[in-house]
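Interim report to the steering committee. The following record documents the input for Dihydroorotate dehydrogenase (quinone) (347 residues).
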Amino acid sequence: MNLYKNIVRPILFKLDPEPAHNFTFGWIRRASSIPGVGSIIKAAYGYKSPKLEREVFGIRFPNPVGLAAGLDKEAQLIDELANMGFGFIEIGTLTPVGQPGNPEPRMFRLPEDKAVINRMGFNNQGVEQAVKRLRARKSKVIVGGNIGKNKVTPNERATEDYEKCFEALYDYVDYFVVNVSSPNTPNLRALQEKEPLKELLSSVKKLNEAKPKAKPILLKIAPDLTDGQLDDIIEIVGETGIDGVIATNTTIDRSGLTADKNKVENIGAGGLSGAPVTKRSTEVIRYLHEKSGESFPIIGVGGIMSPQDAIDKLKAGASLIQIYTGFIYEGPGLVKRINKAVEKAGL
C-alpha cells in the first residue's frame, strides 16, 4: 500500500494548497527533530548506487534527481529534504529584498490533470534570511540558488537585483540559476529577449569570474518559447559562456486540460505545472540538446510524474532532472523509484 497516496495525500488535499504546504513543512520539521527519525526517513527514501553518480558542470552529483526551485524557496528544510533521497536541492526564487508576493489564494490544484497553477510572485523574506538558514545547515547535499528580481525593480535595473543575490549567496550555494521565466512577476519574461538576457548573464558571469572559484551559472527558461527563441538561447549560452540551461519553468498555456473550463478561467493567471507540461518540456530539452550539438548540460524539469517521465527527459538529453509537482502528487517515494529506474535503464 502506498501510504502517501492512500492516506497522507487525501488529508492534505482537503486543505487549500498553500496551507497544505505550510502544514507539511511544519510537520516534517517537527518529526525530523525527534532523534532517529531522520535516519528512518533516509533509510526509507534514500537510494545509493555508484551507477547513479555523475559529474555535471564540474560538480559530482550522488544521483540525478533534484528538487526544483519553489518548494523550499527559503532554505527552511534543506537537511530534512536531503534525507528524502534527493541528489540536489534548489532553493528560491530569492530576491534581494523580502516581498509578500501576489494576493492569496495564489496556488490551485487541478487533480483531474495532475497539475498545479501558481501565481506566487516570488514571495520570500529576502536573500539574507535564506543565507542565515544556509549557514546553519548540517547536511552536505548540493544546493542551487535560484535568483530573481524584486517586483518593484524596473527591468532596466534588474541586473542589480541579480548581482545582489549572487553576492549574498556565493559562499553558500554550489550553483546559480538565473530565473527570467516565471510568468508571475510583471514583465519578467521580457528579460528572456536576446539583448537584455545577454547583458544580464554577462554581468553575473563577470562577477563570478572575479571570485576565487567560479560557480556554475544556469539559465531557467519557459516552455512557451518558440524555436527561434530557443535558437537565441543556444547562441546566448555560447556567447556568454554560462554553464547550462534548466528546461523548463511553468507554462501559461491552458490547452488540452481536462479540468472544467470555467474552473480554469476562474482560477485566472499563473504558471501551470505538472502532467500537462510533460511533453512540451521534453520537446524543449530535445531541441536544445540536438540543435546545440550537445554543447551544454541541461537540467530537465516539467511534468515528471513517474520514473518513465524522468527516463524520457534523460534520453532527450537532460543530464539531471528535477521534480516539483510530481512530489506533491506522488510523494517522496517518487525520488527512490526514479533512481532505481534510472539505474536499471543504465542512464
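The chain is about 40% helix and 15% strand. The committee is asked to note this result when reviewing the revised timeline.
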